């Protein structure tokens, strides 16, 4: 039996597509093995969102060739689209598979294995600058509790810093009937939670022909009726989509989680205009006001870029004040990184790395305690927790430590168990609808089970609460 190994880089869409590719290889009779072991085929699903992502993509391709020089090494995805020439010239890479060819990857690999790779190399990067079709993919056997469901690809926004429209092409929405079919299938297999994913899901439906056209809110309303699907989470939303009508309809849907990731990028309208974002700080504020009026303590998260070209100290101060005012649950701070071929890469007044680092540190410090305060606001309240995996305290502690960025470490390792958790330290990790991580001691439970109880304080040093299960 041939062996295939995969490595995914980048966003949730890429990770969904990696899962679909793994499924296709399994169906074709391949054994899926860990990336670090010897395989016949290595697939690296690349990312190009920053220069670091490009570098990591190349490193993983080289790593694969080193692990088994006789293997077929496949570069798939976004980096293939943006720097094809470099990958073609790279001796470690045997086959390129572009973004709109991933559903055919097994066929392409088999052809390459029998006919020799260089011959077919050329054909497998689709032309994404026109109006390609949505590439149909369906995920049948993902993880056990939560599944990512891809609803669209591509983006038409062309923000001045972003390479994605070049790597992913224009918007292609997936038909709602196809999405519903996938979600019904996932529910039948016991998946309780879906996350709607895409490159720019707020644009969902705008490219569909008038007969099939539906907007994001129509799609969510349809998904909310799927029997057995308990939770629907939404991927990143644009503030402009948060109209009165959208928020009113959304908040009437019981399965939609009050957890919203909003694209912010900057709290300064001047910076936003240079980024060619289609909203102002005021639009964002208004969207947040509507969400907070409709939901009790929604978990609001956002991405912010520091050091965009021309970002003055005053503009940065506006962002700082804006973040403080909005009071997010979590913020992901990125330092601006030049992407070749984008307008921002050649803008004047590029910000030195030292200034970007200092601004990033200041934002990190500002938001550091916010997540904890938000979590703690639920202590003593009833909650429903969807269980994901069973683990031990030390494992969780180690994982948390490695996830914490440098500079935020320093928590002390808990030595013993804690209230509600059995002596041997085994317990379940799950999430509330607001995505707060919760530990629950419920022996004999299974992934995908919902448990109810009262939320209590979590162990020191871990970003979570503990569930005291309801007495029967
Ligand atoms: S909205 Fe802007 S940042 Fe997001 S993918 Fe499109 S171009 Fe990139």
Describe the fold and architecture:
The chain is of the alpha/beta class and 472 residues long. Helices cover 34% and strands 20% of the residues. The protein is built from 16 helices and 18 strands. It has helices at 12-27, 51-67, 78-82, 84-88, 105-115, 117-121, 164-168, 176-188, 216-223, 244-251, 269-275, 281-294, 313-326, 353-367, 370-376, 393-403; strands at 3-8, 31-32, 41-46, 72-77, 95-97, 146-150, 152-153, 172-173, 193-197, 231-234, 259-265, 299-306, 330-335, 382-392, 426-431, 437-440, 450-456, 465-469. The protein has a 5-stranded parallel beta sheet with strand order 2-1-3-4-5, sandwiched between helices. α9 links the parallel β9 and β10. Bound molecules: iron/sulfur cluster (SF4). Residues 155, 157-159, 162, 164-165, 199-200 line the site of iron/sulfur cluster (SF4).
């Amino acid at each position: 039996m041939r062996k295939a190994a995969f490595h995914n880089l980048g966003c949730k869409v890429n990770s969904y597509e990696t899962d679909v590719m793994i499924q296709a290889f399994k169906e074709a009779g391949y054994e899926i093995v860990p990336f670090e072991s010897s395989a016949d085929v290595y697939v690296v699903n690349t990312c190009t969102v920053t220069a670091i992502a490009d570098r990591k993509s190349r490193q993983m391709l080289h790593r694969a060739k080193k692990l088994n020089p006789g293997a077929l090494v496949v570069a798939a995805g976004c980096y293939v689209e943006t720097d094809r020439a470099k990958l073609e010239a790279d001796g470690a890479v045997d086959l390129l598979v572009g973004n709109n060819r991933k559903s055919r990857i097994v066929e392409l690999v088999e052809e390459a294995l029998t006919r020799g790779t260089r011959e077919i190399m050329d054909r497998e990067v689709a032309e994404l600058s026109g109006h390609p079709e949505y590439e149909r993919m369906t995920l049948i056997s993902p993880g056990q509790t939560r599944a990512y469901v891809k609803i669209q690809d591509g983006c038409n926004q062309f923000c001045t810093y972003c390479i994605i429209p070049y790597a992913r092409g224009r918007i292609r929405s997936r038909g709602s009937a196809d999405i519903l079919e996938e979600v019904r299938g996932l529910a039948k297999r016991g998946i309780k939670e879906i996350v709607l994913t895409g490159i720019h899901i707020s644009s969902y439906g705008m490219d569909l022909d008038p007969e099939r056209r539906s907007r994001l809110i129509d799609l969510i309303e349809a998904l909310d009726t799927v029997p057995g699907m308990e939770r629907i989470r939404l991927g990143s939303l644009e503030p402009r989509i948060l109209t009165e009508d959208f928020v009113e309809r959304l908040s009437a849907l019981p399965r939609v989680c009050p957890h919203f990731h909003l694209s912010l990028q900057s709290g300064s309208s001047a910076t936003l205009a240079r980024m060619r974002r289609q909203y102002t700080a005021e639009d964002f504020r208004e969207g947040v006001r509507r969400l907070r009026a409709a939901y009790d303590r929604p978990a609001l998260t956002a991405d912010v870029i520091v050091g965009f070209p021309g970002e003055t100290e005053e503009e940065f101060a506006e962002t700082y004040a804006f973040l403080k005012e909005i009071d997010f649950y979590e913020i992901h701070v990125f330092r601006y990184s030049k992407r070749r071929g984008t307008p921002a890469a050649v803008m004047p007044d590029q910000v030195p790395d030292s200034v970007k680092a200092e601004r990033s540190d200041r934002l990190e410090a500002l938001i550091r305690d916010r997540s904890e305060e938000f979590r703690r606001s639920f202590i003593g309240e009833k909650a429903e927790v969807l269980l994901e995996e069973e683990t031990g305290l030390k494992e969780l502690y180690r994982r948390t430590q490695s996830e914490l960025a440098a500079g935020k470490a320093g928590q002390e390792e808990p030595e013993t168990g804690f209230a509600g958790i059995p002596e041997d330290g085994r317990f379940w990790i799950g999430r509330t609808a607001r995505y707060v991580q919760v530990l629950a001691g419920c022996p004999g439970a299974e992934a995908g089970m919902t448990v109810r109880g009262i939320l209590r304080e979590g162990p020191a040093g871990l970003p979570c609460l503990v569930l005291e299960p309801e007495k029967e």
